[in-house]
Every structure is written in structure tokens, then in C-alpha cells.
TrEMBL record:
Pfam families attached to this UniProt entry: BPD_transp_2
InterPro entries to which the protein is assigned, alphabetical: ABC_transp_permease
UniProt keyword Cell membrane, yes or no: yes
Protein known as: ABC transporter permease
Organism name: Candidatus Desulfolinea nitratireducens
Keyword Transmembrane helix: yes
CDD domains, per database record: TM_PBP1_transp_TpRbsC_like (cd06580)
């Protein structure tokens, strides 16, 4: 009997497109339909929801950028929560002491970078288990901020919105997109910048190579340790900026554990965004929209306990993690310490 070779059945381009992007398109269209319907009912409420969506999504997408810079180079970062929290605390203190918001923002960024350096040292140099290293970062941040925090500290104010001329007057999206404080605008720029660097520059190619096959990258002359150090430190700086957003732009004050799990939600955003900056931005906007909607629902006269309404964003996190983690391709060398021969 002659042996036969069975070839895999080709998948049609339409089925492949639906499988890859179907869920994203469905969620996007659902959000657009809800927004248009709500705008037809009450335009002011819709504008408030969209503005809140942008505010709620900003620290999440910044945290996700921090995580994907590390994981694209092969370093897992579950210490985003701690980096954000300590950045928020130091930025707040510097604002209290100096009254200079710009200096405070840079202090928050620098603090996050130092925490990133600590994580890189533990993960790359000491070759610690990266989950434990991230846990150390978060525990350290909660301990330091809880110990040194003093009740009653006040600042001279917070970063105010800067309207971008006529763009801020565009119906529906003008106030939400074009009337924001500086860190929010910086977030828009960072998403585009990180996407460009990762996928259109030599450094991005080296980063992705180190995250996929560090041995092959090393053979071609790429310094694996250097790439991982720089990416983790840069990610830490972005997480510090996320912390600065909380105390210097969103709230204007500091409270213990004020990050409230945003660093861990940022990891879910990163996974849902499939380790891409633009995908993470879209996922962050979805989480921000869920948060904004649950806030509006709490103001509405709905006969449901507010605790259940407040659970909505976190239920969404669980659903997305359970549905998308297995479908997301993780960088092959993610979490694996590299031993140079």
C-alpha cells in the first residue's frame, strides 16, 4: 500500500480574520453602539463617561506599557503595582516639599526607574525567580509608603487640563480627548512611541529577539543583559509616571494603597492587548469604559447593591483573563533567566 501524506486543511482568510479579530471587533462595536445610544439620550452624561474613560484608562495603559517592555525582552514584571505606588508617593512628597509639579513628575518617573533597576538587578544579574522579584518590589513599596506616610500633608494643587484650541469644542469627543492634563497627553504619545520603537526600529527588533530567543540574539552580537536592563528600567519609569498621574493629576493627594490593584489590572490589559501597545491601549479604554459606566450606574436609581455594581470592572478582568490568556502568545523566553556561555 502506498503511503499518503495528509496535508492540513487550509483556513480561509475570512475565518482566520474572524478568529483573530472577531472578539475585538464585537466589543468595539458594542461600546460604540452603547455610546451613540447614550449620547442620543443625554449628551452631557455621555461626554462625562468618555472623559472618565480616558482618565480611568491612563494609569492602566501606562502600567501595561511597563509590563510589555519587560516581557518583550524576557522579564516578567508583576511589580507594576509597587512601582506605581512608590512613584505616586514620591511624586506627592516632592510636590509637597517643593510646590513644583514638573519636578514632582520627574521625581515619580525617576522613582519608577530606580524600582525597575532593582527588578532588573534581581532578575537579570542575580537570576532570581522573576515572580518573587516582582513580589519583593510590591511588598517593599507598600511597606515604605505605609511607614513614611503622614496624614494631613497637602500640596499646592495638581496638573490642570490644557484645552487644545478648537479641537476641545468638537461634540462628544472634544472634552474627553482634547481637554486633558499633560500626563494624559503624554500617555497618547507614549503609546505611539513605544509601538514605533518596538516594531519599526533596530532596538525594537533586538528587544523582541531577546524575548524570543536570547541565545540566537547573543550569537548575532546582541547584548542580552543590556537589552533587558534598559527595557525593564524604561518600563519602571513609565510605571512611575502612572503613579505620578494618580497623585499629581487625577487626585492631588496620596492615600495608602491608592493604586487599588491597578498594576495587576494593567497585566490583564497587557495580555488582552496581546503584548502590543495599541492593543493594550484599546483594552485599557475598555476597562476605563467599564469603570466609568459602573460609576454612572451607581448614581442612577437602580435597585441593586452598589457593591455588585462596583464589581463590574473586576468581573470583566476575570472574564477576559479566562478567555484570552490561553489564546495570547507569550514571548518564548519570557521569565527565563539567561546564562551566557
Amino acid at each position: 500500500m502506498q503511503n499518503t501524506i495528509s496535508l492540513p486543511t487550509p483556513v480561509s482568510p475570512i475565518k482566520h480574520f474572524i478568529k483573530k479579530w472577531g472578539a475585538t471587533i464585537f466589543v468595539t462595536l458594542t461600546v460604540i453602539v452603547i455610546t451613540i445610544w447614550q449620547y442620543s439620550v443625554d449628551g452631557r452624561v455621555t461626554e462625562a463617561v468618555l472623559a472618565s474613560t480616558i482618565r480611568q484608562s491612563t494609569p492602566l495603559v501606562l502600567g501595561a506599557l511597563c509590563g510589555l517592555l519587560g516581557e518583550r525582552s524576557g522579564v516578567i514584571n508583576i511589580g507594576i503595582e509597587g512601582q506605581m505606588l512608590l512613584g505616586a508617593f514620591v511624586g506627592f512628597l516632592v510636590n509637597v516639599w517643593t510646590g513644583n509639579l514638573l519636578v514632582a513628575v520627574f521625581a515619580a518617573i525617576f522613582t519608577g526607574a530606580i524600582m525597575g533597576l532593582l527588578l532588573a538587578y534581581m532578575s537579570v544579574h542575580l537570576k532570581m525567580d522573576q515572580i518573587i522579584g516582582g513580589t519583593v518590589i510590591t511588598t517593599l513599596a507598600f511597606g515604605l509608603t505605609g511607614y513614611f506616610y503622614q496624614v494631613g500633608l497637602t500640596t499646592e494643587g495638581k496638573l490642570l487640563p490644557i484645552p487644545l484650541g478648537p479641537l476641545a469644542d468638537i461634540p462628544l469627543i472634544g472634552r474627553a480627548v482634547f481637554n486633558n492634563p499633560p500626563i494624559t497627553y503624554a500617555t497618547f504619545v507614549l503609546v505611539i512611541l513605544v509601538h514605533y520603537v518596538l516594531f519599526y526600529t533596530k532596538w525594537g527588533l533586538r528587544t523582541r529577539a531577546v524575548g524570543e530567543h536570547p541565545r540566537a540574539a547573543d550569537t548575532l552580537g546582541v547584548d542580552v543583559y543590556k537589552v533587558r536592563y534598559i527595557n525593564v528600567i524604561a518600563g519602571g519609569a513609565i510605571a512611575g509616571l502612572a503613579g505620578g498621574f494618580l497623585t499629581l493629576e487625577a487626585v492631588g493627594s496620596f492615600e495608602r494603597a491608592m493604586t487599588n490593584g491597578r498594576g495587576f489590572v494593567a497585566l490583564a490589559v497587557m495580555l488582552f492587548g496581546k503584548y502590543t501597545p495599541l492593543g493594550a491601549w484599546g483594552a485599557a479604554l475598555l476597562f476605563g469604559f467599564a469603570n466609568a459606566m459602573q460609576t454612572q450606574l451607581q448614581f442612577a436609581d437602580i435597585q441593586v447593591a452598589h457593591q455588585f455594581i462596583g464589581m463590574l470592572p473586576y468581573v470583566l478582568t476575570i472574564v477576559i483573563l479566562s478567555g484570552f490568556v490561553g489564546r495570547t502568545r507569550v514571548p518564548a523566553a519570557d521569565g527565563v533567566p539567561y546564562e551566557k556561555e
